[in-house]
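[#protein-structures] MJ: dropping Nucleotidyltransferase domain-containing protein here for a structure pass
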Amino acid sequence: MIEEIDTTSQRAALAGRLCDAIQHRWSAEVRAVGVCGSVAHGDDNESSDVDLVVITYRPRTGPKPAMRKVDGIPVDLRVLCAEEALAGARQLTARWPLLADRYMTTFGLHDPKDFFKELREAHQHLLTEARPAEFSQLARHNWAVANGARQRAVRLTQWYDTDAALVTIAEARVHAALVAGFLTRTWFRNPADAVKRTGVAAADMQELGAILKYQADELAARGRPVDGTLGALFD
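AK: finished. structure tokens for Nucleotidyltransferase domain-containing protein:
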């Protein structure tokens, strides 16, 4: 995460202007405003958007969440109350590898009481306390999604529905990447980063099948087999 925002960046400058506008209009309701994603990492470019998060004192106050362009730049505005944001940081979900970066690298544009530091520490505490079995269980969940998507992609290819098969195999690749993220406790900045860093971005049907077979063996070795008896479903 950057130590200070680069005001020469067009997207960072827009994030600052948005923060000022939000503070001016909802000063009594907003606790903190931050930016995450590429702007927070300091490597935004012409294809980047502005990921802005607004933390309010109470639910359903402050600006409304929105996704649209501002001065030609895509903006993703998320609005959360402080309690909701902290609850999310303290919860391990099936999409953790794609969510953790928000908790760990959000840069505070307006954060007088260090809320984003509190958010980061809450998530770090979660990762310290989480048991290996929890990561393996969520990896198995993503494995099931990836395997199902791959099987659907194979059928769609057999039916010559190439466009639908491409969409479905892309879904399978993302979830296979999430399995790898859980098995190694690695988080990613976005789905594209996930498939690239785990080496599944260009995997075809056969290669992805081999990757899923390897992951299934790894999950079995960790006590979370992907197949089992009816009773095992409820364990």
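MJ: nice. The two ends are 39 Å apart (CA to CA).
AK: one more thing. The first strand starts at residue 30 and ends at 36.
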